Amino acid sequence: MFFRKKGGNVVSVANGKAVDLSTVSDPAFASKAMGEGVAIIPSDGKVVAPINGEITMIFPTNHAFGIKGKDGVEFLIHIGIDTVNLNGNGFSAIASAGQKVKAGDSIIDVDLGILSSNNVDSTIMFIVTDDNGKAIKTTVNQEVVAGQTEVISY
């Protein structure tokens, strides 16, 4: 008798619309050179944990963070395109590196108005950076709810 290890279900990091990663305007993300994933066009500035896990890093400008699940799968959440150039303006970290979080916990707040006034694309890239040998499936072309709607499964 074989017992298959159950995979994981990963929820959206933001409210908005999930779209295919290949459609984003940043070639590094669109080509999936950084990993498989999904993009989310946010409808508000709340960014949450997609899984129960540990925050592995928060970029100094608060525009990106990493999280690792108990099963070893790692994710990168990158908020916006070229947002590093804002030097943290419009981003407020709520969590910190090393913190244990649950899916749906607030991690970063983003002022989408600041991004818009600086002509910065607010699309959030949600990337599986280390799949730990698991096959990744994404759900796109639908409205998603932060901390609730499954967008990645393995």
Please explain how this structure is put together:
The chain has 154 residues and is mainly beta. 6% of the residues lie in helices and 40% in strands. The chain has 2 helices and 14 strands; from the N terminus they run ββαββββββββαββββ. It has helices at 27-30, 112-117; strands at 9-11, 16-20, 36-42, 46-48, 53-58, 64-69, 74-79, 91-93, 100-101, 106-110, 124-130, 137-138, 142-144, 150-153. The strands form 3 sheets. The protein has an 8-stranded antiparallel β-sheet with strand order 9-5-6-7-11-3-2-13, with no helix packed on it. It has a 3-stranded antiparallel β-sheet with strand order 1-14-12, with no helix packed on it. The chain has a 3-stranded antiparallel β-sheet with strand order 4-10-8, with no helix packed on it. The radius of gyration is 15 Å and the shape is globular. It starts with 8 loop residues before the first strand and ends with a strand. Mean pLDDT is 93; it is low at 1-5.
